[in-house]
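CORE FACILITY INTAKE
Project code: CF-77B
Contact: R.S. (postdoc)
Sample description: multi-component assembly, two entities in total
Requested service: structural model of the whole complex
Turnaround: standard
Below are the sequence entries exactly as provided by the requester. Do not edit them.
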Amino acid sequence: GAGVSQSPSNKVTEKGKDVELRCDPISGHTALYWYRQRLGQGLEFLIYFQGNSAPDKSGLPSDRFSAERTGESVSTLTIQRTQQEDSAVYLCASSLRGQPRRSGANVLTFGAGSRLTVL
Amino acid sequence: RKEVEQDPGPFNVPEGATVAFNCTYSNSASQSFFWYRQDCRKEPKLLMSVYSSGNEDGRFTAQLNRASQYISLLIRDSKLSDSATYLCVVTSLSWGAGNKLTFGGGTRVLVKP
């Protein structure tokens, strides 16, 4: 697609429920990133995909968080048994490739985010 | 020490004035550098890449100082619309075959009439 698409844009859920957040990156972008941003805070790295594999999952806060990517396109971030501290905006970004190159290849394009509120 | 650090601000800037701020990074092997802009409740968007020789895009000038491990952003003739949070991003080779992007916490700039 023309941009990075995320859904849902807003999600309100009850504590203990599972949620699924979806990211549809720019067509042809092999690198995909998930970040979390709490209100008034900076971006917190969660996970990075290169193609369908995830070289680095070190940012996932706990085993309640998981992510997958299929077909080098859509990625899903799943949060199980949500807690109030999971409330945040979850941002997805994609780039042409994850390899370090001269400027341009590592430029991230972000989606508008999924705002999660856990009551 | 954080890998990428920024003064959170806010920098209160009179309209038309010049403002500059830095971003320091700890990994000397860092390879690429960027400035992103994030408006309130919006996603970050690329403002400009930072080249070794320094670069300019209109009223914005970015510099890289590898010896002291920081990048800077200067905004001339500030406009009200420049009010935003400016995020620096540093990349380095550390994720297997890919690269790691690390964001600073952002510097908030408020331009006032």
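Facility notes:
- Chain B touches chain A at residues 31-32, 34, 36, 42-46, 49, 51, 87, 89, 91-93, 95-106 (CB under 8 Å).
- The first strand of chain B starts at residue 4 and ends at 6.
Invoice: internal transfer
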